Amino acid sequence: MSEMIRAFQTLRQLYDGFAGAETALGNSIGRSPCMSGCGRCCEVNTVQCLTIEAMNAVSLLTGLGKLRKAVDIAEGWLLEHHKEAPSYEGMVVGRFLTPELREEYTRISKLPCPFLQADKRCLIHEARPFVCRAYGVTRTTSGFCTRPPGKGETLTQFQYIQAPELKQDVDAFRAWLKRNHQPWVVSGFLPTLIYRAAEEKKFRGLVRDNRIASAKIIGVDIDTTLMWQPQLEKLQLGVMPDLVAQS
Ligand code: SF4
Ligand code: SF4
Question: How many domains, in total, are found in the chain?
Answer without folding.
Answer: 1
